[in-house]
Amino acid sequence: MTSLALRWRLKTIQAYDRFRLRRRLAENPGLSLDPESSTNFASSHFAIAPGGHLSIGPRVYTERLARGVHISVAEGASVEIDADTWLRSDLGPVIIFAFPGARITIGREGFLNGCHLSAKSTLSIGNRVWIGPGSRVFDADQHDLAVDRKEQIQPVTIGDHCWIASDCTVLRGVEIGEQCVVGTRSLVNKSLPPHTLAVGSPAKPAGTISDRSNVDI
In this structure, what DSSP letter does residue 55 have? Predict the structure, then answer.
């Protein structure tokens, strides 16, 4: 295929995706999609209940994969994804679920790579946070284990410039300070101070991390 034919094909695909996105916006009053965000979100799956709100900021990108991104926003819940964030879905789907009344915020220049975020209260992710494939962040136990062991819900915070590597789990009530790195397959069930390298299950401090502000993906 010549470069000219390829350009026309890509323009046709983008025009079709813009049309699909306009229909999505018309069908979902709770969806706010910045005009500068990727047209590939036309292939994503959004489930927004009445009173729920999903905001996708400028230059937020993803791949053109069917259900590569799945975002569910329940009644009265909100999900906000700030500018220049990449929801990478070619290694696995990016799944974001906000239960009724919950709030999920994702800061600028984030890199969510085939991960799963779930909130029943509050999940706050700072600027330039990387979360690797297969990793999960929960602010609740998800289930009542028994009559005398009810589900517990506590906010989760991940500070700026953190890197949560692949196949990690971050549990309720955890606050991860800025500039932290969590090693592969770690289970974070306790808060970590800023600039901490943590590994293991449960994760324990294993060193310190210097400034990561200028580290590239």
Answer: E
Instruction: Count other C-beta atoms under 10 Å from residue 139's C-beta.
Output: 27
The answer to whether the pTM exceeds 0.70 is yes
Edge-to-edge strand list for the sheet holding 111-113:
61-62, 86-88, 111-113, 130-131, 163-164, 181-182, 196-199, 204-208
DSSP 135-193: -EEESB--S--BTTB---B--EEE-TT-EE-TT-EE-TT-EEPTT-EE-TT-EE-S-B-
In the block, residue with structure tokens 């695909």: 13
35 vs 57: CA distance, rounded Å: 9
Residue 175: C-alpha distances to residues 37, 149, 204, 211, 216 (Å): 30, 23, 14, 19, 24
Domains along the chain with CATH numbers: 3-208 (2.160.10.10)
Q: Among positive and negative, which fits the CA dihedral 149, 134, 183, 212?
A: negative
122-171 pLDDT, tens per residue? 999 999 999 999 999 999 986 656 666 678 899 999 999 999 999 999 99
- Our CA angle for 197, 199, 203, nearest 5°, is 105
Q: Which DSSP letter does residue 43 get? A: G
* Listed residue (60, 10, 16) closest to 42, CA to CA: 16
Strand partners, 198: 182, 205
